[in-house]
Protein: Glucose-6-phosphate isomerase
Amino acid sequence: MSQAIRFDYSHARAFVQSDEWEKLAKPIFQAHEMLHKRTGPGSNYLGWIDWPVQYDRAEYTRIKRIAARIQADSDVLLIIGIGGSCLGAKAALDFLNHSFYNLLPASKRSTPEIHFVGNNISPVYLAHLMEVLEGKRVSINVISKSGTTLEPAIAFRLFRDWLEKRLGREEARKRIYVTTDKARGALRKLAECEGYETFVIPEDIGGRFSVLTPVGLLPIAVSGVDIDALLQGAADARMNYLVPDIEENPCYQYAGIRNILYGKGKQVEVVVNYEPRFRSFAEWWKQLFGESEGKDGKGLFPASAEFSADLHSLGQYIQDGVRLLFETVISVKRPAIDVRIQPEGEEVDGLHFLSGKTMNDVNQKAFAGTMLAHVDGGVPNLVVEIPEATAYYLGGLFYFFQKACGISGYLLGINPFDQPGVEAYKANMLALLGKPGYELQKAELEVRLRGK
Ligand SMILES: O=P(O)(O)OC[C@H]1O[C@H](O)[C@H](O)[C@@H](O)[C@@H]1O
Structure:
């Protein structure tokens, strides 16, 4: 099976001694064994490893059928979810669809507009969205593994009510699709009570590893993307990244080198793209690595930058600021479209040297020039390259990073599959809101807020 992803760490090699690289072989092998033999921490959450070939075929067929129904009867699909229950779908939608998907006229897009809500607590965002939806045929896909996350729960309460007021309870029921745990949580109970169509988030797959389950697949399919190709890309990646040998496995090389760089004080990994369509992918990647590795006082801080825009804002810091960064550039070899630059007439803009070149030529040179400048400035650069921005290659990328994350977490000596730290803010918020059972905590927090 040919490697769809090219991983190039030659621009980081100068920062790594050869014995450091060699010393990694054993820990990488051990991390591989822990993942595949399910002997490491968090081993109840490894369902994603074989998911691309072991998914529920009947449910998959139903996803396609329901996606076709939503395409036929809706102007808008509203996705309600947060974190792992929205970032993967958003990553894929932005990466694979038209840059202005929602703005395309009906003559250019036969699939519904897709909007996200429940991923913040902003009343302004919510009210503005309701204005945009007025007069449109709306379907809702509410996604929550726990079924109890406050942000999507509030949004769902409001939009369910919004839909029922317009269509009546019966009609609204036919337009609400619930993706949640197969047995647990308030959302599952409600779905059963109301008779909503439901999809299952597998118990052994955590939110940030769930993009290839119904969590991502239903919204992605509604937008018209070929989900067979997406899964195939992931299934091929599963085979491609199976060898427990760092010399032969680019996914493990990525995990290994970021671990070495981290050990040398490079505490921030900046994922960089030169294509705005990668923006949401970076958000997905940030949750994947941030929640997986940031614990026990350890972990690289995952950040992102979009070049060349951010070269004009963050560029100065990256080149000359505190030397705590390394960059991972995600690059697409051939853009779907290219545009030729043809300066004409008198050379008033001084751009005749670009004559005959394309935008992609310029973008690639910006990439190469920036990479070398940053390496000279002490910022190691890693490159993850795919040939084209297609569903197949995106499926491979999702899998590449998920697996690298599992290996990387084990190299770091933490459990990459839990997120205990996320609860701290939730408990405070619920206490401050007066949830029964939190009375003591509420009183203590209020004293602190008053500054006493
Ligand atoms: O799918 P849900 O249960 O609603 O969870 C949504 C998100 O919120 C939580 O707080 C977790 O930290 C995330 O890992 C999760 O993806």
Summary: The mean pLDDT is 96. Residues 150-173 form the longest helix (24 residues). The pocket of 6-O-phosphono-alpha-D-glucopyranose is lined by residues 82-85, 144-146, 149, 152, 207-208, 291, 419, 422 (CB under 6 Å). Residues 50-229 form a domain with the Rossmann fold fold (CATH 3.40.50.10490).
